[in-house]
Amino acid sequence: MPWDGPEIHTYNQPESWLNTDNMNLSSAAIPDLDTLATELGTAVAESGVLVGELTVISRHPNIYCSTFPSEIVTCRLGDRQKIRVLCKYSAEVDNESYGTRRGIEYETDVYRQLLQTLDLSCPTFYGAYREPANNRTGLVLEYLADSVRIIHSSDIGTVFEAAAWIGRFHALCSTRISSPALSFLNSYDPEYYRGWARRTLNMEQQSGLAPRWLETVCSRFDEVIEMLCEAPSTIIHGEYYPKNILLHDGLIYPVDWESTAIASGEIDLATLTEGWAPDDIERLELEYQQARWPQGSPYDFHRVLVAARIYIQFRWLGDPRARLKEYNHYLDALHTYAGEMGLI
Q1: pTM
Q2: Which pLDDT does position 130 carry in this prediction?
Q3: Which residue, 5, 68, 108, 340, shows the most beta carbons closer than 10 Å to its own?
Q4: Residues 6 or more apart from 31 whose CB is under 8 A from it?
């Protein structure tokens, strides 16, 4: 089983959510039924599918929600068809990520300005709304019933398909990073990368557990940063772990785009390939390269990928919440990749 990224963002749902027949979900982050119906009608009208009044038939908890609360809502549009949507809500949560995660409003812009314009499998964007009373944002997406997160798929082929999907995505987006419509996107600069190494070293030194080699790696991290910043930039998912990728009707559907950024595409491949067997990693890398660069990948692809893997370890070592559970995993991996890069 591959390493699936840290499980550190859990929204504690109230017990009332456990009753799937409950139409009065009692959470400060969840709109009441009347507000939900009104705001959903406003949001879905943006997509052009709403005819007449929108009626909420049922609402159920999304058991896979992570940083932000979400629910699955079944609606009737006028007197015609029913649709099921996934509603994600902004909320006051402990979401400090030092410039990585940007929230529901940001993810809404990613869907509106980028994802729905691409010829790739992606949940339908039905719209978004902002509640005047509390300034809370709701993101409304197609609910992909009967989908499975590829980490739970018994078919390794789905992960290879995910590698090809993100390769195609990076190829398409490499020509869009200068688009005025995407000027809102976060961009990884040298100071962003340095912050993760700095926080890692500070926490290690304060704990008294810092291995001797860590200071050397941190002092030479600018060599890694230079490689990542000089590599061709594109738009990345940011946390392209198998837990954030759905398989639905045989197609790949990445979800949770709040960490989208302009950066080296190898970062997404680094997260996808964590923890797989060496032969599988080699195949994943090949699928990615063929999809992104059909005419041949850059000569320094593998070194840039190792640099991305070093960054990923710092990304989680420098996050105090992730360190609670997976400290040794990150540290061991950092030592391995730093040695491969020749930093120690």
Answers
A1: 0.88
A2: 82
A3: 108
A4: 39, 89, 131, 136, 138
